Amino acid sequence: MSRKKINVGILFGGKSAEHEVSLQSAKNVYDAIDREQYHPILIGIDKTGKWLLNEGSRFLLNDDDPGRIRLNQSGDPVTLIPESRGAISNLRDLKDSGTVDVVFPILHGPFGEDGTVQGLLRLADIPFVGSGVLGSAVGMDKDVMKRLLRDAGIPIGKFLVLRSHEAVLPFDEAAAALGVPLFVKPANMGSSVGVSKIHNEAEYRLGIREAFLYDSKIILEEYIRGRELECSVLGNEEAIASVPGEIISSHEFYSYDAKYLDEKGAVLKIPAEVPARIAEKIRELALKTFRALCCTGLSRVDFFLREAEETAEGGGVIVNEINTMPGFTRISMYPKLWEASGIGYTELISRLINLAIAGFEQEKGLRTSYSGEG
């Protein structure tokens, strides 16, 4: 007797400037998922927030061109409702359009990676891949993330926070606090969207304006001269860390174009050529960061290694940020690091789905009412 396949809802797209990145990730996961164990169900979210149930043969347009890739709008409009336990409701006739047993929310940025979708999936009583509401929310907000990391004793760079309703900090004051160059970033965004490297006051004004297009809170960060390293984390309570990798960008910094549009935008060196003690320090800090921010399932932790301190005993390793739903294309750093650590792409997808189900079953064992008994 053949075992019943698990229905995996691949949720992708979203109301975010990282929408196109999510489309690429979804295509790769859909193509690679183990069809012997899982039946993938594609649910795309367009940029207005509409959920569309799509067929695998036609869910993307221009999927061979990262600059022109689009979600096919021809799918049926659907939704998930609280306590549905995975039932997909068709908004045209209000009938069920199938059921998902677990969801892989391959959503990057706001309205997907920030706890919003995670909250909906919890209300719908469906297991899902990745961090829960809290871990997703604090992992998305660079301000809150950095404050939690600082309080946990994890080394981070200097930063300042600006809000749209406040007077803009003068460039001279920002430069005095952080040095020049410095970076300006939206607090809640990824994939280097809205990020500017600032060398002077004119660039500062433009960078501030650009960042505020994407968020009402922005971050000013010191420029750390050194190497950019990344480490992948996998697991729930007993998480493990991959070998670290290095990004060598051919651009001014590792921008959106360098990551997704320019084939020669960056070189990924996996594993990174660093002393064993530095590699171990990076893995240790990746796990400590993962736990400090209440993450589960998966994350990618990004680091800087200060040039002048590379030879120090674990010194010079600075945590930049965490990404709780990193890019998941076959050439993305998260799966590439696991491939170099002995876990292939298809196996990685299966492990993440199993972690989601295990975490869900563990939570289901918790009481939801008080009986007064010990």
Any idea what the CATH superfamily of the largest domain is called? ATP-grasp fold, B domain
Q: How many strands in all?
A: 19
- Residue runs with pLDDT of under 50 for 5 or more positions: none
Number of helices: 10
Largest sheet: 7 strands, mixed
Distance between the termini: 43 Å
Q: What is the number of domains?
A: 3
Which word captures the global form?
Answer: globular
Fill in the CATH topology of the largest domain: D-amino Acid Aminotransferase, Chain A, domain 1
Order of helices and strands: EHEEEEEEEEHHHEHEEHEEEEHEHEEHH
Q: Which architecture of the largest domain would the CATH scheme give at its second level?
A: 2-Layer Sandwich
Counting helices, strands and paired strands, the structural category is alpha+beta
Rounded mean pLDDT score:
89
Give the oligomer, counting copies of the same chain as homo and different chains as hetero. Answer: single chain
Q: What Rg do the Cα atoms give?
A: 21 Å
Please state roughly what percent of the residues sit in beta strands, choosing from under 5%, 5-15%, 15-25%, 25-35%, 35-45% or over 45%. Answer: 25-35%
The strand order across the widest sheet is 8-7-6-3-2-1-9
Percentage of helical residues? 25-40%
What is the name of the CATH class of the largest domain? Alpha Beta
